[in-house]
Amino acid sequence: MAVRTINQIQEKAQFYQQPQFTVNQSLMYIDLITKKECSLITSASLPSNFTYFIPNYTSQKPLLCLDLDETLIASSFKQGGDEDFQIHVTYQNIDNTYSVLKRQYLDEFLLSLAEDFELAIFTYSIKQYADKIIKIIDTHNLIKYKFYREHCVRNKINESQFVIIKDLTRVGVPLDRILLIDNTKRVGEWQPNNFIWCESFYGDRSDEHLRTMLPRIKALGKVPSIYKELEKENEQ
Ligand SMILES: [Mg+2]
User: Which residues form the FCP1 homology domain (predicted)?
Assistant: First the structure.
């Protein structure tokens, strides 16, 4: 573990006061510690030479992309609380400790959905952080694919604001057979017929949202077209 110097702490403090970009208020995520930002784009169409995240998806099951933070877990810098586990992340010579709470019913949720879907994590967090959490919460090795911040795109909406989008057309799975679940509505708005919004989890031990969502998600794993099914729902 690297030890933080006074200079590094001061640099970090300055960093926090000067966000590199501002996103829509529904996703107030300030990109502070990574230079590997997601691509800045101005058009939803893909370049002709684009390499899909999964170039050869051959599974018979549809792909379920699950957000991580505030969807499956809650994480904070707060120490000594009632967290389930802690992780230590060193990035650019700065150490951080995160206390993490698993959302209630998470193990059963993943086990049950793996019967109907291939599972992926699609997070705006950086790999160094997300991988440590996934390794602990994925006790049965059910998560086959992982997409991180560099897989998201930043859509410029005016001179100073960006919106983070999780563009499912980049994954390489037809829209009939892919679903995203996320606590941030904005990230799914390019493919609303492939998106289910879920309530945010901040650590409430009485939260039941994963359990209540499960039957609806499992049912979508069995339909001929997730896109058409949610299109019908969204038109009502
Ligand atoms: Mg989230």
Answer: 57-220
Residue of 124, 133, 106 lying closest to 213 (CA atoms): 106
Structure tokens at 32: 């502070």
DSSP assignment, residue 52?
Answer: P
Bridge partners for 146 per DSSP: 121
Contact 90, 2 (CB under 8 A): yes
Which CATH number applies to 20-41+58-72+104-235: 3.40.50.720, 3.40.50.1000, 1.10.10.10, 3.30.460.10? 3.40.50.1000
Is residue 95 among the annotated active site residues?
Answer: no
Please give the distance, rounded to the nearest whole angstrom, from the Cα atom of residue 185 to the centre of ligand 1.
Answer: 9
Q: Is 116 a catalytic residue?
A: no
Q: How large a percentage of the chain has pLDDT more than 70?
A: 81
**Mean pLDDT for the chain?**
84
| Cα 153 to ligand 1 centroid, rounded to whole Å | 15
Cα-to-centroid distance, 149 and ligand 1 (Å): 12
Say if residues 111 and 214 touch (Cβ distance below 8 Å).
no
Catalytic residue (choose from 67, 138, 182, 207)? 67
Can you list the positions of beta strands (E) in the chain? 22-23, 39-41, 63-66, 73-76, 85-91, 94-102, 118-122, 143-147, 153-156, 161-165, 178-182, 195-197
| pLDDT tens string 136-156 | 999 999 999 999 988 998 877
**Helix, strand, coil percentages, rounded to 5, for the chain:** 30, 25, 45
